[in-house]
Structure to design on (544 residues):
């Protein structure tokens, strides 16, 4: 099985550098139009956010809830990826936004709102990863909201046209190996890799979010990829 | 450029984090080094394989449940407002709309000052204006607290508060001087003093705190002269500092003074290619109430190269 054969195209939201952003229109063949659309949407979002933040700082809860809607899918996705548990992801979501609501008055527009918010989320996720010793050899089996254990990978259906059961099985096996390899990383390595590879953020932004330098983020990414490659090679 | 450097930077290359010159050199090296070319292929394969793993996506019902739970908690959550009570800008803004609050604040300020004076003064000694006491002579009476007629004579006891002027000399780099200037720029009721302090602070806009104070003056000072002065000092930062750019955009859209808005357009010129600036200019060119601003915004936009 070649890796390319299984490659999943990266969505525009992942490469925009703005987590959770969706393109203005789903289909645009003209690349420059799409790029311009992103730029304009980013600008509109920035101006919108500034207004909403100021209103939230004055105690307007509706404005804060609107801000939540801008970012909460990306936050939940990050927490879910890192914890592998719906319940834990929901707890982190809850704690992060409550903390953000309580502290929004201290936001001084020195960085973007999503960097500030992600700083809160990543801290909570790192705390969670520190507390919970990930069982390294286990497949990512977790407890759902119904209290029943189930494999997370079972939730992921292969939606692509032409998918067949054999292909799907191989894909799940690869997924399980990757999950196990990710489980061997330290919390910080896991976080940097997640933010870079899956969320498509720039290392400079990741450094800001983790209160460290871009150089440290680079080194951490390097270490994480090396460890992952070794782990995946050992599992073959 | 050697194999060691390439191997150390190949991750950054694959994740598009290597600067252009580094990318070029790496590509040149890989074109003639089989080992490094194999390493690059392996790294690209790794990235593709990692992307091929099934992605765990939160279900819509999980998102909906999370939103509902958060909404319930927000109903009872309180924001931390402690430090904001100490922010003079918040007080100033509130005072604009609440003369009663302003009076109460003034009284509270004097009371606190007087309280401190009583504690510092020796016990049993009531401060009194005595001829020849230079400090008392310079002091102005802030208010009378109590008048008591002494029994059996024509003596009275008057308790009062004074404000004693202080003076501090020092370099503009002195932190105490900067603190007083920051305080004056934010809180002084005399706009001339605010303008002077903004003028002096503007000489050191590299300092983050000073820049923040200048942005606050630009957005919230009631005197257009002070706002204009703050605006001019922030001009050089518009290209590289997003916070400054946003402050200027806000002034451009909301300031009541046409001079401040015209100057804001002028100062935003170096950042006119920025998406948010362009968007605001497009809106102003279309439907701003001032003809001058519409024309200026239109001219600035016309000088932009087409993105496509």
């Amino acid at each position: 099985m070649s890796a390319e054969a299984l490659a999943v195209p990266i969505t525009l939201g992942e490469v925009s550098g703005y987590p959770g952003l969706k393109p203005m229109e789903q289909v645009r063949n003209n690349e420059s139009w799409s790029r311009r659309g992103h730029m304009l949407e980013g600008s509109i979002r920035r101006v919108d956010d500034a207004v909403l933040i100021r209103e939230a700082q004055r105690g307007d809860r509706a404005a804060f809830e609107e801000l939540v809607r801008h970012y909460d899918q990306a936050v939940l996705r990050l927490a879910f990826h890192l914890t592998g548990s719906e319940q834990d992801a929901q707890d982190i979501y809850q704690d992060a936004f409550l903390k953000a609501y309580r502290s929004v008055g201290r936001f001084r527009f020195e960085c973007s709102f999503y960097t500030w918010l992600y700083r809160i989320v990543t801290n909570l996720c790192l705390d969670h990863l520190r507390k919970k010793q990930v069982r390294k050899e286990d497949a990512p089996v977790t407890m759902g909201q119904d209290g029943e254990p189930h494999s997370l990978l079972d939730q992921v259906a292969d939606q692509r046209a032409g998918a067949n059961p054999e292909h799907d099985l191989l894909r799940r096996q690869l997924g399980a190996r990757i999950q196990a390899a990710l489980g061997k990383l330290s919390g910080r390595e896991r976080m940097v890799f997640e933010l870079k590879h899956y969320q498509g953020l720039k290392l400079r932004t990741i450094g800001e979010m983790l209160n460290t330098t871009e150089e440290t983020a680079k080194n951490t990414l390097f270490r994480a990829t090396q460890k992952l490659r070794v782990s995946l090679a050992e599992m073959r | 450029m050697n194999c060691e450097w390439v191997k150390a930077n190949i991750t950054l290359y694959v994740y598009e984090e290597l600067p252009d010159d580094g990318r070029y050199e790496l590509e040149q090296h890989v074109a003639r080094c089989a080992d490094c070319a194999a390493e690059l292929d392996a790294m690209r394969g790794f990235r593709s394989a990692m992307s091929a793993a099934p992605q765990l996506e939160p279900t819509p019902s999980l998102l909906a449940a999370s939103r509902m739970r958060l909404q319930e908690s927000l109903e009872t959550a309180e924001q931390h407002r402690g430090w904001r009570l100490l922010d003079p800008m918040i007080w100033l803004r509130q005072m604009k709309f609440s003369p009663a609050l302003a009076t109460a604040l003034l009284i509270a300020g004097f009371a606190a000052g007087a309280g401190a004076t009583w504690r510092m003064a020796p016990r049993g000694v009531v401060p009194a204006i005595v001829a020849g006491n230079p400090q008392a002579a310079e002091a102005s009476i802030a208010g009378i607290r109590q008048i008591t007629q002494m029994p059996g004579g024509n003596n009275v006891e008057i308790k009062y508060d004074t404000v004693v002027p202080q003076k501090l000399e020092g370099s503009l780099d002195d932190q105490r001087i900067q603190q007083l200037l920051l305080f004056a720029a934010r809180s002084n009721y005399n706009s001339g003093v605010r303008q002077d302090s903004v003028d002096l602070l503007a000489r050191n806009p590299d300092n983050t705190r000073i820049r923040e104070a200048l942005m606050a003056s630009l957005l919230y000072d009631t005197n257009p002269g002070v706002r204009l002065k703050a605006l001019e000092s922030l001009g050089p930062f518009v290209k590289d500092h997003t916070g400054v750019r946003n402050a200027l955009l806000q002034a451009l859209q909301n300031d009541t003074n046409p001079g401040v808005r015209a100057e804001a357009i002028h100062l935003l010129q170096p950042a006119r290619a920025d998406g948010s600036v362009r968007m605001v200019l497009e809106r102003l060119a279309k439907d701003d109430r001032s003809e001058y601003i519409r024309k200026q915004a239109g001219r600035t936009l016309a000088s932009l190269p087409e993105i496509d």
